[in-house]
Design brief:
Chain lengths: ~160, ~375, ~200
């Protein structure tokens, strides 16, 4: 069934403008807090290995998703901040569709000695070259400027 | 339809802000339910997640975000949500899975992280209002409940003292609960009546706090239940009902949606005289007057009678009809959906005789849990029975 | 079990409390997992966190009913819809009746007077900050509409003590050139002279 009244005046239907304003504070979680506090003081990463299936999680977790068991403290290991690029792409426009002055290269980087990966910005001048498999290492902010978030990793550069 | 049993339950600490992420909270609650019952991830057939607005956690599509903490990776999974009603609706959805025969063991997890919304979850609540008719007036959610409370008090001529008595009872009851956020052994009616007025007639101690937390429940078919426990508690009846969003076009003194949901659940459970046949109840109590409002909605007493029963001590833990023996939302905390911990997990623990310091002394056999959600619209009811 | 009364409220009886506290069966939940983080922990950065300020803009289509409702408010009038089947006069208007589940039938103008259905006296402003002079807010059932049908709005030109359920009120409009087609084209509802209880 349809409404009994026809709209014949095209200017009659109105719109109401507004926004959904709210700010967010995300705690890093038990595992995330340990990782970020470690990165604040050291130039390396932490990973966690499941005692049952031996999968090494990066970023480290409180629990293994598959075995569904808690990963204890002693299964956490320190790993160097190096890895190899699994996937990469060149970003030329921003969120609103405006062209970026300097294109960015963003990649998913497999972290060495773990079964996990992380997204990161790749510092490179050559946008044409094949990036898959290339070895990279993380460059961090100066220690006194780190604030315990993912942004403490500035970018990844070729080793 | 098959018989469905509850075999395990778990819940986390409830506090204004917890360090754990939503996934970690879901994991902690699920782990407790699994330890309790002996069920492992490989035994689970399906998982149901109940979680209220994405706007609190600040993660869009938060059902997808939470699933690995809820043992749902590589399993059939669904998220259900109807505001505050989710705490009882998620177990109802879990019941559908098992009663229909598509699953033998279903895990139900409810999680809420209200602290992410800064500076206060009220900011996210602003977006419930209609953008055209209500938001330009810049309303505060407390106004809404103050208006409902006022209507209820005026229609039945109920005094604030009788309503404050509920807050005192629940905060005292919460003293036996390890997860409780605001237990208070010494609180009195005068403390509640002298607390600051937020939006008359609502005062500070009339309201439950926003919280972070998670809870979990494991439901099984009859045969599987006997594998995990000697003492399964049966889901005897479920009911759910929702009223129109146009709250300014309804008389708010009686929650007819709760009554409709209750009738549906009682019919399924074969209950004809709720006041006599039900041993205890966990109605939803985010505000103290809501416990009275919902007692009437659950048909546990006549309209307008709930305040009298509270005054006479009938609803105390050792009374004739204990109400909110867990301490309810007023005492334990209000992480919207995760209140399943007080409303359904508590029914399970009481019926199985496992409630420790909170145990009702009169050996209960049948309990009813209820939740309420959205803009005073949703009523969800569940009846659990022993043996 | 027995109860006793003191200081105006009811305690669990001594025997009842004793039984509860000495029960031998262990209590569930046996422990409460979770790590509390206080406001001070956040302020002192004892824990790491990520801050995010999303920017989301919306343009909500009003639909025929609310469009007409707001256009009429701009002209200083309140309009409603009728449902012939359940015999309701519905305000705010809608193009379908949610109970009969059929389209509504006609437009009808209503007066700008009504009765207070319920109200609250708020000492909190919209951002939950305390204010000294309260905001008076409530639901007004509009005259001419079905019983208990109306909308939320402010009250003004009255003291908080005068406000009561059942009070007769009248809308106070903004001057014509200030009206924009919004619920705020009505400033507030004031007591109807000659109304009273």
């Amino acid at each position: 069934m349809t409404f009994l009244e026809k709209q014949t005046d095209p200017t009659a239907p109105m719109h109401w403008r507004g926004n959904m304003q709210a700010d967010y504070l995300y705690t890093s979680g038990v595992a995330g807090d340990k990782l970020f506090k470690h990165i604040m003081k050291n130039d390396s990463f932490l990973a966690a290995t499941c005692p049952k299936c031996n999968k090494t999680y990066f970023p480290p977790r409180l629990y293994c998703e598959d075995c569904f068991c808690e990963i204890p403290e002693n299964e956490w290991i320190e790993v160097p901040p190096t890895g190899s690029i699994k996937l990469a792409t060149v970003v030329t426009i921003d969120t609103y569709g405006n062209k970026l002055e300097d294109p960015k290269v963003v990649g998913m980087i497999n972290i060495d000695k773990t079964d996990g990966a992380i997204l990161g910005i790749l510092k490179t001048d050559n946008f044409e070259e094949e990036l898959r498999g290339v070895k990279v290492e993380a460059v961090f902010k100066p220690k006194n400027k780190r604030d315990g978030t993912l942004k403490d990793i500035l970018y990844f550069k070729k080793k | 339809m098959r018989k469905v049993a509850v075999v395990g339950a778990g819940m986390t600490l409830f506090r204004r802000r917890l360090l754990e992420t939503g996934k970690e909270l879901s994991f902690l609650a699920t782990k407790m339910a699994m330890e309790d019952s002996g069920v492992e991830k490989k035994d689970l057939d399906m998982v149901v997640m109940g979680s209220a607005p994405d706007a609190f956690d600040g993660i869009h599509m938060k059902g997808e975000n939470l699933l690995d903490g809820a043992a749902a990776a590589n399993k059939p999974y669904v998220r259900v949500f109807n505001g505050g009603g989710t705490g009882v609706f998620a177990p109802i959805a879990g019941w559908w899975h098992v009663a229909s025969g598509v699953a033998d063991v279903a895990l139900v997890v409810c999680e809420e992280k209200m602290s992410s919304c800064f500076p206060h979850p009220q900011t996210a609540f602003q977006h419930i209002w209609d953008p055209v008719l209500d938001r330009p007036l810049h309303p505060n959610l407390i106004w809404l409940f103050a208006m409902e409370m006022n209507r209820y008090m005026t229609v039945y001529n109920i005094k604030k003292e009788d309503i404050a008595r509920v807050a005192v009872k629940n905060k005292r009851n919460a003293v036996g609960h390890p997860c409780a956020q605001l237990p208070d052994e010494k609180i009195t009616i005068d403390d509640v009546l002298n607390s600051e007025v937020m939006a008359w007639p609502v005062q500070r101690l009339d309201i439950s706090p926003p919280s972070d937390g998670a809870s979990a429940l494991i439901l099984c078919s009859e045969e599987k239940a006997r594998q995990f426990t000697e003492d399964p508690i049966w889901v005897d009846g479920v009911g759910w009902n929702i009223d129109s969003t146009m709250w300014t076009n309804r008389d708010l003194y009686f929650p007819r949606y709760v009554a409709n949901a209750a009738k549906m659940a009682y019919k399924m459970a074969g209950i004809q005289n709720p006041r006599k046949e039900i041993d205890f109840a966990e109605p939803y109590d985010p505000f103290d007057y809501k416990e009275l409002h919902h007692m009437e909605g659950l048909l546990l007493c006549d309209k307008g009678e709930a305040a009298k029963l509270t005054r006479e001590g009938v609803t105390q833990r050792d009374g004739d009809l204990p109400i909110c023996p867990s301490g309810g939302l007023l005492g334990v905390g209000n992480p919207i959906a995760a209140t399943m911990g007080q409303k359904v997990c508590e029914l399970y623990w009481q019926l199985a005789g496992k409630a420790g310091k909170r145990q009702i002394p009169t050996d209960p056999q049948v309990g009813v849990g209820q939740a309420w959600g959205d803009i005073m619209q949703m009523g969800t009811v569940i009846v659990l029975r022993r043996g | 079990m027995g109860r006793y009364y003191a200081n105006g409220y009811c305690y669990c009886s001594e025997a009842g409390v004793k039984k509860m506290m000495t029960t031998k069966k262990e209590g569930y939940p046996k422990y409460a997992p979770g790590t509390h983080v206080s406001g001070k922990d956040i302020a002192n950065k004892n824990v790491t966190y990520t801050w995010w300020e999303p920017e989301v803009q919306y343009s909500w289509a009003l639909g025929p009913a609310n469009s007409r409702f707001l256009q009429e408010l701009k002209k200083g009038r309140i309009i409603a819809r009728t449902c012939k089947k359940c015999d309701r006069v519905i305000v705010p208007p809608r193009m379908f009746c949610e109970y009969c589940y059929r389209p509504t039938d006609d437009w009808i103008y209503l007066k700008d007077t009504g009765t207070v259905e319920t109200y609250s006296i708020s000492y909190l402003d919209p951002n939950a900050r305390r204010i000294k002079d309260p905001i008076l807010i409530g639901v007004i059932s509009i005259d001419g509409a079905s019983p208990h049908h109306g909308f939320m709005h402010y009250f003004g030109k009255m003291k908080p003590e005068e406000l009561h359920i059942g009070m007769k009120v009248k809308a106070v409009w903004k001057p014509e050139k200030e009206r924009t087609g919004s619920i705020t084209d009505i400033k507030y509802f004031k007591p109807l002279k000659g109304g009273g209880k």
